[in-house]
Give the backbone structure.
Amino acid sequence: MAHFAQVDEYQIVRNVIVVNNSDCGGGEFPDSEPIGQAFIASIGIDGEWLQTSYNNNFRGQYAGQSDRWVEDAGHVDGGYFQSSVIEVVVEE
């Protein structure tokens, strides 16, 4: 199964869906991404969809809702997903 994250205009992940491998051409990332994107559009789901790896094999980590997409032309996968968890340090 292939996983795709919907990213809004602020580069925030809004949804993550599962697409059958056969609907992504049966190949591996990155070749599967444009085929999967075309399939998602063909079934009437709008938006920008980026493939994400459930096993963290590419793009840094699996994209979760409210995570952020960081586009980086220098990154091997064109960018990466970053957790939305914010660490708060309280000084005493």
In short: The longest helix spans residues 32-42.
